[in-house]
Amino acid sequence: MPKLPLPLSPVPEQETDVGDRLPSRGTPAPARLGSAGSGGSATFSRPTDEPQTVHEESGPCYPENAGNDSEEEMEEEEEEEERDEDWDTDLEIEDSKTSHDPTGKAKYLKTCRMQGVVPISYFLRHMKDSELTLKHYGLGPKGAIALAPSLANNTSIVKLNLSDNWLNGDGAAAVAEMLKENCYISDVDLSENRLGVKGAKALSSMLGENRTLLTLKLSGNELDERAAKYLADAFVINNKVESLDLSHNMLEELAGVVLGAAIAENVGLKELDLSWNHFRGKGAVAIAKGLGGNIFLRVLDLSYNGFGNGGAAALGEALKVNNVLEELNIGNNRISLEGALCLALGLKENKTLKIFSVARNPIQSDGCIGILKALQANPRAALEVLDFSEIVVKQDFAGLCDGVQVIFPSLQIKHNWSSRSFKTDPSKTLPPSTNWTTYGSVIDIGSGI
Question: Which end of the chain has less Cβ packing within 10 Å, N or C?
């Protein structure tokens, strides 16, 4: 008969439960001291003296209220996350709006609806360009008012051309307000817009605040002596604008008086165009004196005015003391031989002027000769171009040109000539198709047979 295995010593039911229990998380498994098949009793070490109830389905044991605390904490965390998400969403919406309308397109369309004007498709397509040209678009005052808000915050455009758009004073005021806010646009062309006194006043106010604008063109805007007062104020206040075009306006004698004083005080302008106005008498003299006191101006265009001999005499005095000006144009100013000799006295002492034009003045051949002799007496002169265009000279002028060439080998002299006035050396004549004659290799005699 087979032997039955010896019965094991009885193990309390509670011990059996403990033996079958899985160790809790973080509690090391109890060390087994005996084997069930060794015939001896199996004993286990307890981590605690108190029996613990274990639920196999619930996993590790936690305190009784641990689940409730976790749920409350989780609810609070969820609420904080929702608040954070709401905050992030607001930022994302705002950033999204900004990123989708960086040039002010939506604002432009809205203001167009408000002003009752048709949006300019070219502007919508080129809002991100560095140069925007809306010349001849017929904007009118309302078009400028609609355009200005979107340009105020535009960061791409640096050169703006709104010439010939009939902006009038109201349109100019809108553009001026825009330029007070915009700090990127440095070049503005408002020519041929009939800005008048109201436009000049608005632009003068803008120039008192703007520190970005470098070039401003106001040609052909019906600016008169009343507008000149506002412009003169801007000359004194603003020292950032380097180039100003006031040509083709209605600036007369009184305007010249106020502008001349402002020119003397200005410390920013490098180029000034006053051509095609009506400066005469005291106005011309005041502008010439302003030039004498200015220490920054490099280029000055006074052509097509009425300076006459009195203005020429004042310019001659200015050239004696001005050591900055490099280019001066006084063409077509009713200057005769007397005025030419006054200018010659100024050139005799000037050391900075490089380009000098007295074209289309009735100074005759003797006036041209007087200016050349002044250059001969000033070996430190810097003159590179001397323009006598449309002034008929005589034969003795040709011989003097050769003498001047020896002193100033790079000097170019331009003038009209007639084959009946004097003959030239055929060996020194350019091909007939050019209609130009040269003395030496660097002095150019202009066409106009």
Answer: N
- For residue 288, which phi and psi values (nearest 5 degrees)? -60, -40
Residue-wise burial string across 60-91, b where 16 or more C-beta atoms lie within 10 A, e elsewhere: eeeeeeeeeeeeeeeeeeeeeeeeeeeeeeee
293: left (phi over 0), alpha (psi -120 to 50) or beta: alpha
Q: Are 60 and 23 in contact (CB under 8 A)?
A: no
Give dist(CA 163, CA 181) in Å, integer.
21
Closest CA to 367 of 324, 323, 330, 322: 330
The answer to whether residues 225 and 197 touch, using CB atoms and an 8 Å cutoff, is: no
Rounded Cα distance between 112 and 146, Å, is 5
Sign of CA dihedral 221, 224, 230, 234: positive
**Residues 270-320 pLDDT 10s:** 999 999 999 999 999 999 999 999 999 999 999 999 999 999 999 999 999
pLDDT in tens, 197-247: 999 999 999 999 999 999 999 999 999 999 999 999 999 999 999 999 999
Number of helical (H) and strand (E) elements in the chain, helices listed first: 14, 13
User: What span, in angstroms and rounded, lies between the C-alpha atoms of 276 and 248?
Assistant: 5
Check residue 42 and report its DSSP letter.
P
For residues 148 and 140, what is the distance between their CA atoms, to the nearest angstrom?
Answer: 12
Exposure of 265 by Cβ count < 10 A (0-12 exposed, 13-18 middle, 19+ buried)?
Answer: middle
Burial of residue 385 (CB within 10 Å: 0-12, 13-18, 19+) is middle
- Report pTM: 0.72
What is the rounded distance in angstroms from the CA atom of residue 284 to the CA atom of residue 337?
18
C-alpha distances (whole Å) from 297 to each of 209, 256, 271 are 22, 17, 6
159-161/355-357 β-pairing: unpaired
- Distance between CA atoms of 145 and 136, rounded to whole angstroms? 17
Determine contact, residues 159/190, Cβ cutoff 8 Å. Answer: no
Contacts of 376 (CB under 8 A, 6+ apart): 403, 404, 407
Fill in the DSSP letter of residue 330: -
Distance CA 375, CA 364 (A): 18
Name the token pair of 284: 């011309």
d(Cα 34, Cα 94) in Å, to the nearest integer? 72
Please state the separation of Cα 226 from the chain's center in Å.
Answer: 29
Kindly state the DSSP code that residue 305 receives in the 8-state scheme. S
Q: Which of 373, 387, 381 is nearest to 415 (CA)?
A: 387
Nearest one of 118, 197, 183, 109 to 149, comparing CA atoms: 109
DSSP state of 306: B
Q: Are the C-beta atoms of 299 and 272 separated by less than 8 Å? A: yes
